[in-house]
Amino acid sequence: MKTPPSSQRHALAAFLRAQRARLSPASFGLSTGSRRRTPGLTREEAAQLSGMSATWYTWIEQGREVSMSPAALARLARAYRLTRAERAYLFDLADKRDPDVHQAGQDADLPEAAAAAIAAVTVPAYLLDRHWQARHWNAAAAALFIGWLDHTAADPQRNLLRYIFLEPRARQMIVDWEDRARRVVAEFRADHSHALDDPQLRGLIGDLRRHSPAFSRLWEEQSVLGREGGNRQFQHPQRGLLLYRQIAFTLANQPDIKLVMLVPVDAAA
């Protein structure tokens, strides 16, 4: 049975260790006596709950060259009570197809009409590619995101993560920066679990970890979240406090391309 690449095996091991430590033994009817030496479940308890041998589970957490069947992954996901995003991340790291999830087709080229459609939108709108680089954006987005989508941007690739973690103006403009940064990292991890051996992706993560202690700390948290919309607040240097409702779409047959729109709260009411 084929095993995932080394980078994915070690990422899977770290994810499982983090998830196991967060689980309360009491919620599974297990003893929480004073002799328990580790937070969360033990490896033996996790193995029993997921229907596999303790030795096999230990090898997986050690990042060894072992493979898990989709059925075993599904049992583990249920035992760990993973969210949909966390379950998808688990299957991607194990290089297995989740039998309960419909798989999207291959990516297609970005349609030229997408740029024209975004330009016609009056609210801030932009397209992100698989590495979270802005491919197209409109004038409203350029006026909002100073230092990312306007002419003063230092990053020629217009990468959203580089903007959030390496552009000082982002910390000043994004309200509740720490919370937003933490969620963005968790969403990025969920989005890209299937491509950890992508050289460009690995280079981006490595560069951010070297130059941003905040990114490195949040990346080590192993959090995984599905991308969601919601309220966004910005303290714009010229326009003051701005409130938006963010909505995001995936382009048809192109799961790695996302359209993000920011609708002013007054307009969305």
From TrEMBL:
Domain HTH cro/C1-type intervals: 15-87
Coiled coil: none
SMART domains listed in its UniProt record: HTH_XRE
Pfam families assigned: HTH_31, MLTR_LBD
Highest taxon of the lineage: Bacteria
Record's protein name: Helix-turn-helix transcriptional regulator
